[in-house]
Design a protein that fits this description.
The chain has 304 residues and is α+β, with helices and mostly antiparallel strands. It has one domain (33-295): Sulfite Oxidase, Chain A, domain 2, CATH 3.90.420.10. The protein has eight helices and 14 strands. The strands form three sheets. Strands 5, 6, 9, 10, 11, 13 and 14 form a seven-stranded mixed β-sheet that branches. A five-stranded mixed β-sheet has the order 4-3-12-7-8. Strands 1-2 form a two-stranded antiparallel ribbon. Strand 9 (194-199) and strand 10 form a beta hairpin. The radius of gyration is 18 Å and the shape is globular. The two termini are 36 Å apart. The structure holds ligand MTE. The site of ligand MTE has 16 residues, from loops.
Length: 304
């Protein structure tokens, strides 16, 4: 296999990664689990996070060289190849809509108040492949609460950076730009919903959605919008990129569901990157116990 190191990964981050792996092995032998602080040091080394899967994490090189990020190119390797173009400094995030404390925030404003923790999550792409990714970041709910959403905030929408120089894929229009996604407020506030700022103990690489991305592990990967610059609280269900572009194939909810086929293929099985035999796809990507109640009484075929 061709092993590439993305050009935006600096030497100290690679060192951190090696240290991180050793630390993980160490904590594993203790039967422990690490929560990493901003310093990268374990904060807690006992008990197992209720949020992390036991599945074996996908190797780092696969996670950062097999991506969907059409702003950095179509094809799985293009995002890594173009990663250096996505400069993440300066970066700001605009928060507006139905909230008491809107504003434009620097990346530091957004990230600083939140202690970093680790979540090992399954990611299931609607195309039929999956990975297991050790993310670092913090719960989305903690971030959203800071802006004091009003009672009219029924949904939250997110937008990716719109900038043709930093996002060369935006020179063409396979979909309308910017990439947008959205969640119902109760989904956004669910403890599994996460903002990732790193993976495998290193700063999030550009191709993975630097400097901050959403991760919603029970939904198809397209909900996990990358490189976020805007968060808006809204009353009505927001338009989201793929559901606008191809509404009969990609729904707003996008809950992983082996019972509901994509119009052009089955969703019963998935190929875990690095594995030979296909696996059965699990309802809500294996998180049914935690999230199924969010959808009680809903027809999940109609609301796919
Ligand atoms: N976010 C933006 N802005 N642009 C994209 O093309 N692709 C989505 C999602 N977030 C995408 C995006 C899709 S289809 C998937 S499967 C995941 O990112 C892939 O995340 P990964 O490349 O980190 O595995």
């Amino acid at each position: 296999m061709l092993i590439k190191r993305p050009s935006d990964i600096r030497e100290h981050e690679v060192t951190d990664f090696a240290l991180y792996q050793r630390r993980r092995e160490f904590l594993k032998t203790l039967g422990g689990f690490a929560l990493l602080g901003a310093s990268g040091l374990p904060l807690v080394a006992h008990g197992k996070s209720a949020f992390s899967t036991d599945d074996e994490p996908t190797p780092y090189d696969d996670i950062v060289n097999y991506n969907n990020f059409i702003e950095l190119g179509t094809g799985k390797e293009a995002p890594a190849e173009n990663a250096a173009l996505l400069k993440t400094s300066p970066w700001s995030v605009t928060v507006d809509g139905e909230c008491a404390k809107p504003g434009q925030f620097t990346l530091e404003d957004i990230l600083k108040p939140h202690p970093t923790e680790e979540r090992i999550y399954r990611l299931r792409c609607v195309e039929g492949w999956s990975m297991v990714i050790p993310w670092q970041g913090f719960p989305l709910a903690a971030l959203l609460k800071r802006f004091q959403p009003t009672s009219k905030a029924k949904y939250v929408s997110f937008e990716t950076l719109l900038d043709r120089a930093r996002m060369p894929g935006q020179k063409r229009n396979p979909i309308g730009w910017p990439y947008t996604e959205g969640l119902r407020m109760d989904e956004a506030m669910h403890p599994l919903s996460f903002i990732a700022t790193g993976l495998y103990g290193a700063t999030l690489p550009a191709q993975s959605g630097a400097p901050l991305r959403l991760v919603v592990p029970w939904k198809y990967g397209y909900k996990s919008i990358k490189s976020i610059v805007r968060i808006r609280f809204v009353e009505q269900q927001p338009a989201t990129s793929w559901s606008v572009e191809v509404p009969d194939e990609y729904g707003f909810y996008a809950n992983v569901n082996p019972e509901v086929d994509h119009p052009r293929w089955s969703q019963r099985k998935e190929r875990r990157i690095g594995e030979f035999l296909k696996r059965e796809t699990l309802p809500f990507n294996g998180y049914a116990e935690q999230v199924a109640s969010l959808y009680s009484g809903m027809d999940l075929r109609a609301n796919f």
